[in-house]
Amino acid sequence: MGRVRPVKMRGSDAYVYVGTAYSNRYEYVMPKKPRLRTRRSGERSCRRPRPPEQWIAIPVPVLIDQQTWDRAKAQLARNAAMSFRHNKKNDYLLRCLLKCGTCGLGIHGACSAATNGRSGHRYYKCAGTDALTTGRDARCPRARIDAGALEQAVWDHITGLLGDPSQLSAQFERFVAEADAAQTREETPSQQLRARLDRLDRADRRLLEAYQAEVISLAELAERRQGLAEQRRLASSSLSSTAAYASSRFTPKTCWTAWLRSANASAHGCKAPASPTARRSCSW
Fold first, then answer.
1. What does the pLDDT average to over 160-172?
2. What is the pTM of this model?
3. In the list 9, 55, 186, 242, which could disulfide-bond 13, CB 3.0-4.6 Å?
4. Domain spans of the chain?
């Protein structure tokens, strides 16, 4: 028997539990800030919720009773209020940047409860320590990580890089090389389209040779060339769209190079603070 994973349903989807499903909940509209020169320019690509009075209710089999449903809604409200995403009391330098090397799940900041007049202890916790909510067979064995020590170690590494331009340049040159390799892999679709256009040109020449050798008639030649012309038009259109999309976006190499140039310029004008808590005093 397969592993049972927790089911998460939000919004009107959750009403399926108590016997009602809704359709006609969304409509597609033009984006308020459309991206320039994309493949979907001019399309209604943004989904907008319709007013609840326009929803169409559909009776479905009841999964849970109304009392259980009400308790679940109350618990979800409490979970949302206590979620680490809404934490405004503690500052976590590495928030949303850490991943567990043991189980691969994200690591988030947390704080223990204050006791005997002492403030709570900040730490980082792997999401895999709760096997139920993550649908894992076993909890992650990774222990809590002291937030202060981890943030100081990361901050010391960053300030060390910024204080040594040669080391910083070497690291980002490696990033640029990796970005070049990724960009080369992305060029494969364009190469395939160009190869298809070459094959279509060769097929057109073979048709002309067959007509000259009186193997096919003029009507058959015209019919086949019309089909090739349509295929060539579609391939050329796809190639143009791919080229326009590639030229309109920032490549990883461009982003890394620009960041490196900016970091080198900023490093000469601002001394790195000694600790993460003082980082806001520097403009970079």
1. 78
2. 0.41
3. 9
4. 11-69, 89-153, 164-269
